[in-house]
Amino acid sequence: MTGWTSDDIPDQSGRTAIVTGANSGLGFATARQLARRGAHVVLAVRDEAKGRGAAEAIGGSVEVRRVDLADLDSVRAFADGYDNGLDLLVDNAGIMCPPRRLSPQGHESQFAANHLGHFALTGLLLDRLAEGADPRVVVVSSLAHGRGRIRFEDLTGADGYGPFKFYAQSKLANMLFALELDRRLRAAGSPVRSLVAHPGLASTDLVKSYPQPLPAVARMVMPLICQSAELGALPQLYAATDPKAEGGQYIGPDGRKQRKGYPAVVRPARSGRDLEAARRLWELSEELTGVEYRF
User: Catalytic pick from 167, 210, 250, 262?
Assistant: First the structure.
């Protein structure tokens, strides 16, 4: 039986969406479907040339704006220069398992790009978003969040960096942020909904940031165990558009071990439901980004 697909996306005419990392992979698939259903989509990308290529391929009402999520100065510049309406923010961009390097502000690159940049961007745009129609924030996490731990004592990896364990940390941070954001929005009576989604195992360009090329066997197996970016984007599209989607929900594939399938409400790992870790991460993120949320 077929589940929810892109054909079920309601008409998005009159809505404006920002999708980070929209030049490829899940972000491109998300932006394309939103534009296809009538939304005006802002492709928030680090590489403007690639963004323009994506815009041409997507068609419809799209524009390209540059932002480097790993650089908080770039995030502020993007937010300061954004003067349009806003109904939807999809915090999608991410990097995966690079060698250890630091952001311009001195943060570990995956924590910076995947979490801190989106934390800052969301906070800086929240007032504008609250004025939108059916306003939503969708944060893209990963199955890897269940293997993550927030290393409050060593966020930069100076005392023991591992590419995957710091990727998992950043994806756990996405989960904790999205759910804590929803709790705070609800407490403040805000109209904005915050949801979190994951693609299961999706074949995207994200694996290109591995420190070394995938072995030949892995390249052969990947298409067998992964679904396409188009299918992987369905959970975040459901979270972004479906009338039944509720704030605080976690949307992922409904198949075995959430690896493939159609969008369904799923349950975060225990670490993703840790209220104390979420509170501590929130306070630290405000300190590290200099962005204080005002509800």
Answer: 167
